Amino acid sequence: VPLTAATPPPLFRDVAVALVNISLYPTSRNAVIKAGAVFGLQEALAGDEVEQELALALLQNLSLSPACHDDIMDKQCGFLQILPKFLHASANVFIRTKACAVLQHLASRPENAAMLVKAGLVHLLFREGVFETQEVTCQIRALSILVNISAHLEDDQALCSDTVLTVLAALNQKIELNAYVQGIVSNLALIKEQQQPLRKHGLLAPLPMKPKSLKAPKPSAPPAQQKKSAVSVAPKRRKSASNSSVRSANDGQGSAHDGGSVRDGDIDGATD
Predict the structure, then answer these.
(1) Which of 4, 100, 112, 235 has minimal CB crowding within 10 Å?
(2) What is the pLDDT of residue 251?
(3) Residue 76: CB partners within 8 Å, gap ≥ 6?
(4) Cα–Cα distance between 2 and 16 in angstroms, integer?
(5) Phi and psi (nearest 5°) for 110?
(6) Helical (H) or strand (E) element with 76
(7) What is the separation of C-alpha 103 from the centre of its chain, rounded to a whole number of angstroms?
(8) What is 188-235 written as a DSSP string?
(9) How far apart are the first and last CA of the chain?
(10) Cβ neighbours of residue 43 closer than 8 Å, sequence gap 6 or more
């Protein structure tokens, strides 16, 4: 497939669109990967906005298959090297969204998540203000990246910084984003030391207050003895009641069950 700078623009666009459509289907997707389409996108990823968007759309579909993750992460592809440009605030919102979709798919594998965090991806997402965009689809993709990363690296300090938690607390107020934020929080809360920062930012319910111990009331003073009446009446003799034993009811103790955290590491195959 001639996806190089020498390819005439109309031909490049037609070929790229055809590959994007073909790669929607898993069997065809694998054939496109084997044909070396990932490495053939290097020049397109560095091209103009139209070329970049088509190249990212193809990577978005191809990255649904873990078979090509190593190729996308490779320097020869060029995706990670140009990533800051794709995520920059001045970038086309569709380019940002597609780049985040590729990252979401890559981060579904623990080894990829570790490499992306080590390369500073979390810092990059917040530095470029990806979460501040008004495009909800882009925000969902970006949050999905963090859901996948936190599923594998729940104890990574980059995810529990003041900057990250402040932004998450703001996004948590939006109904359409709440489920994604709570997915991240559930993963981070697995680490006991991270629960307090989460509570501080209102992302985790506060600990219940310990009930105060109740003291038994002091017995009241016995009432003053009544004066005897002038005519005393002998009380009638009553039969003594049989000694009846009182049995205490069994305490029904229900076992407490802590709900496990939901790890949202699934890859959604939404394509544009």
Answers:
(1) 235
(2) 33
(3) 39, 42
(4) 10
(5) -60, -40
(6) none
(7) 14
(8) HTTSGGGHHHHHHTTSSPPPPPPPPPPPPPPPPPPPPPPPPPSS--PP
(9) 22
(10) 3, 4, 5
Amino acid 265: pLDDT? 38
Using 70 as the pLDDT threshold, list the residues of the chain that sit under it.
1-8, 209-272
Structure tokens, 79: 């995706």
Structure tokens at 80: 């990670």
Angstrom CA distances, 222 to 84, 124, 228, stand at 84, 77, 17
Q: 193, 91, 183: which is closest to 146 by C-alpha?
A: 183
Percentage helix, strand, coil for the chain under 3-state DSSP, each rounded to 5: 55, 0, 45
3-state secondary structure string across 29-61 = HHHHHHCCCCHHHHHHHCCCHHHHHHHHHHHHH
- What is the per-residue pLDDT for 32? 92
Cα dihedral 100, 104, 106, 111 in deg (nearest 10): 120
Burial class (CB within 10 angstroms; exposed 0-12, middle 13-18, buried 19+) of 188: buried
Question: Residue 132 and residue 134: Cα distance in Å, rounded?
Answer: 6
| Identity at 148, one-letter amino acid code | N
Angle at 130 between CA 110 and CA 23, to 5 degrees: 60
Burial category of 114 from C-beta neighbours within 10 Å (exposed 0-12, middle 13-18, buried 19 and up): middle
- What does the alpha-carbon distance between residue 105 and residue 102 come to, in Å, rounded to a whole number? 5
Closest CA to 36 of 60, 18, 62: 62
Rounded Cα gap, residues 157 and 135, in angstroms: 28
How far apart are alpha carbons 222 and 180 in whole angstroms? Answer: 65
CB count in 10 Å sphere of residue 49:
11
AA letter at 224 = A
Residue with tokens 């949050």: 143
